Amino acid sequence: MSDQMYRSDPDRPRTPPQQRPGEPDAELIEGHNYDGIQEYDNPTPGWWHAIFFATIVFSILYLIVYDISPLTPTVHERHASIESKALDKMFAELNNIPLGEEKLRAIMGQDKWLAMGASVYAQHCIVCHGDQGQGLVGPNMTDEVYLRVAELMDIATIVEDGANNGAMPAWKNRLNANEIALVSAYAASLRGTNIEGKEPEGEPIPAWPAVLSPDELQAAAAAAATKTASR
Asked: Which residues pair with 29 in a beta bridge?
């Protein structure tokens, strides 16, 4: 049999090979070819483009509304608002009483507020005054003698403004008025517990005034609120 039978006829018209099952349509294949690898033309769907452009528009609006617009509260303003609401809920009528002896007496009459004062004390005062107020660098606050304190409100004044040329730092820029009152009342409540520690410093002073009863506290809060509203 002649080899001519196995040779292709150059003049015979060629037909494209049939598409195999699972192969992509030739019209959907990109024209470029890299080492025999062809790219299937499969564009992303319209909904994907819609979501992409929507995120761009959202980001622009978010920037304008939350970072540029003067009508929207800043992060610090929102934090201050949340903190104020939390303080109102936490301290209730105590929040209406200005910092003074009456406020300290009110705190000393409520165990829950003394516990808050103890928490502030534990966070800021232990290093100098000891975990029980027995005194380390600072004076012992558990005996009956005091240095630079003659009356209850003097404790809050020292906490606010500091003392002894900065040895006792001023806390008025780091604690709010309620925290100053809480920690001052807690420090005053340690009087007479007589924890062994630093030697007594100062002179004996009169006893603290009586704590406020719940009824007296409500009356004081109402009076303070009325005074504030009348201004």
From this structure: 40
User: For residues 50 and 44, what is the distance between their CA atoms, to the nearest angstrom?
Assistant: 11
Q: Give the 3-state secondary structure of residue 182.
A: helix
Over the Cα atoms of the chain, what is R_g?
A: 39
168 neighbors 109 (Cβ within 8 angstroms): no
Helices (H), 134-231: 152-161, 177-189, 214-229
Please return the burial class of 82, using the count of CB atoms within 10 Å of its CB with bins 0-12, 13-18 and 19+: exposed
> What is the pTM for the complete model shown?
0.64
Q: Which residue from 54, 186, 61, 181 is spatially nearest to 119, judged by alpha carbons?
A: 186
Q: What is the model's pLDDT at position 151?
A: 95
> Whole-angstrom Cα distance, residue 25 to residue 20?
10
- pLDDT single digits (tens) 147-162: 999 999 999 999 999 9
pLDDT of residue 73: 82
